[in-house]
Amino acid sequence: MNLNLTRRFGFLVNDVARLYGQQFDRLAREEIGLSQAQCRLVGVLATHEGDEPLSQTELAQRLGLSAMAVGGLCDRMAAAGWIRREPSPTDRRINRLQLEPRARKALTAALAIGDGLTTRALAPLSAAERAQLLALLAKTRLSLMSLSTAEEDAA
Questions:
Q1: For residue 50, with 0-12 CB atoms within 10 Å meaning exposed, 13-18 middle and 19 or more buried, which class applies?
Q2: Residue 3: is its pLDDT beyond 70?
Q3: Which fold has domain 16-121?
Q4: pTM of the model
């Protein structure tokens, strides 16, 4: 049995994500005053703009977090003026989430932080290796998404 976990796909991908996330979280807190989780929340809301605003439950599903965790995150972000909650016109139990203008500016800064961190993290790779790595990860992502879809269809 090979116990070198650094050569196992799941361990390696998770470890890279953890290390990248720690660095991003530190930089984002220092530079824009938002955590990685808060930046993800802003990013999801921003990519959904133009459509009907997301509810907290829908946001939780997209973030892969519990509704309770997202509720607390939204409480803090609304109190700090990053987002606002608006009651749904069709269901008073539901709040729709909107970004405040300062959150859009913060998202631009967060993307720049991510770009800079990615550049530093991938610096040992050639341009061709970087392109190949991203292409292979995208292919793997699609494969995993199709496995999830196949499992849902079988259920």
A1: exposed
A2: yes
A3: Arc Repressor Mutant, subunit A (1.10.10)
A4: 0.85
